[in-house]
Amino acid sequence: MTVKIFIKRKVSPANVLDLTVLLKKLRSLTLNQAGYIYGETLKRVDKQDECMVISTWRSIDDWNAWLNNDERISIQREIDNLLGEKTEYAVYEV
């Protein structure tokens, strides 16, 4: 069953460029992952410091394989260190 992953992050204006670089690294790795269908990055209109990444995966198993990927974990650690807080994930079935 297809799943959508909602990934919420808060970013200060000072960190936007660094975060963009890290997100592009993640996106390029994601494109080669089994089960990855599509993703988009959104900036919240009423809260300038909040962004949301929505990705669609063929199955929860495909998402979990990516979630536990060592390269992804390394980049995610950099993101969390940059932002000073853990990234929030929510998984929904389609």
Gist?
The protein has helices at residues 16-30, 60-67, 70-83; strands spanning 3-10, 36-43, 50-57, 88-93. With 94 residues, it is of the alpha+beta class. The protein has one domain: Alpha-Beta Plaits (2-Layer Sandwich), CATH 3.30.70.
Keywords, separated by commas or semicolons:
94 residues, alpha+beta, Alpha-Beta Plaits, four-stranded antiparallel beta sheet, 4 strands
Q: What is the CATH architecture annotation?
A: 2-Layer Sandwich
Class by helix and strand content? alpha+beta
The CATH top-level class label:
Alpha Beta
Helix share bin: 25-40%
Which strand-content bin applies to the residues? 25-35%
Round the mean pLDDT to the nearest integer and report it.
94
Gap from first CA to last CA: 7 Å
Low-confidence stretches: none
Gyration radius from CA atoms, angstroms? 13 Å
How many beta-strand segments?
4
Give the number of helices.
3
Give the CA-based shape: globular
Give the tally of structural domains: 1
The profile of the biggest β sheet is: 4 strands, antiparallel
**CATH topology, anyone?**
Alpha-Beta Plaits
SSE order, one letter for each helix or strand:
EHEEHHE
Spatial order of the strands in the main sheet? 2-3-1-4
How would you describe what is shown here?
It is built from 3 helices and 4 strands; from the N terminus they run βαββααβ. The chain is of the alpha+beta class and 94 residues long. It has a single domain (3-93), classed as Alpha-Beta Plaits (2-Layer Sandwich), CATH 3.30.70. Strands 2-3-1-4 form a 4-stranded antiparallel beta sheet. Helix 1 (16-30) packs antiparallel against helix 3 (70-83). The termini are close together.
